[in-house]
Amino acid sequence: QVQLVESGGGLVQAGGSLRLSCAASGRAFSNYGMGWFRQAPGKEREFVAAISWSGGSTYYADSVKGRFTISRDNAKNLGYLQMNSLKPEDTAVYYCAAGSRYAVVLMTTQKKYDYWGQGTQVTVSL
Length: 126
Prior knowledge:
The chain is an all-beta fold. It contains no helices and 11 strands.
């Protein structure tokens, strides 16, 4: 079993940067692919980024390509989402998730994930 807790959210000015962390419990974190999703008020939860169990492969939503970087440190049971050049439209609750191994291009749907964190709020101001 895996339990996930996000942190690092907060208020940041447009154009700024923020790094989200996802702390995982247990010894099996490295056996799971990991993803980040976000949900803005009144909108459906959307895919942001995914990373393979080994960290060797990543995949991003078009809306964040070139700005966000997903990474993981399995030795520390941590996942990360580095967010640069933030825009007001990035404002959302961000969730990390872990699931069984799939190719990262297949990890764009919530159904691929077994475990979810509670989310952390990211607000990008003007």
